[in-house]
Amino acid sequence: ITVKAADRDLHSGLYGGAAANPIRILARILADIHDKDGRVTIPGFYDGVEETPSQILKSWEALGETAETFLGPVGLSIPSGEHGRSVLELTWARPSAEFNGIIGGYTGKGFKTVIAAEASAKVSFRLVHKQNPEKIRAAFQAFVRERIPADCSVDFHPHGGSPAIQLSYDSPFLAKAKDALSDEWPKPAVTTGSGGSIPVVGDFQTYLGIESLLVGFGLDDDRIHSPNEKYEMSSFHKGQRSWARILDALTR
To answer: What's the CATH code, domain 172-250?
Structure first.
């Protein structure tokens, strides 16, 4: 999204306090998207979101993961999502709204005391269950427009969207895959959720009625989407063996 105010960058000594500042407008809008308890405030955002079955939550609790052990390796310790939910439920089963980048005005070295003409942010939503991406996009845009001053404007630049996919927790395909993985790895497999932008998988389910089994392999310290991202050869080789076991199990 891009918020536009004056027709050019302005000198803050000449226009400060009088001219609208798009950086301030954008920052306020982004801050309004979450309440003090970490819930998304966009109207209708949670439509279609289901609660995680108690037996699944118990299986996650049995893993012994805490906010400190989960966030500690990345230098954090306090969850920022919905209060009252574990870090595993927040990341595996709950929807989220995140800000992936923000820019505006002068960002070079030294000072240039301007009031920027525009400011932009990249915003993404991780959807779950039966959330409708088009409805959420429309609700988000309405949410933003309501907060734009009358003499300013906002432009939206969509990058696509797809509904979430979810297999039934008692899916026979899921059960066979879990057994196959448990045969290959030293610890029993656990059903989890994950955010991943693979829209074609949603199309398989929506248009073809075909369920997709997503099984990936990696380690917590692979630094996905970060500098020095890596991938261990052990994940590659045991991943090959795991898929051989899964495919064999599915044919029975």
So the answer is: 1.10.150.900
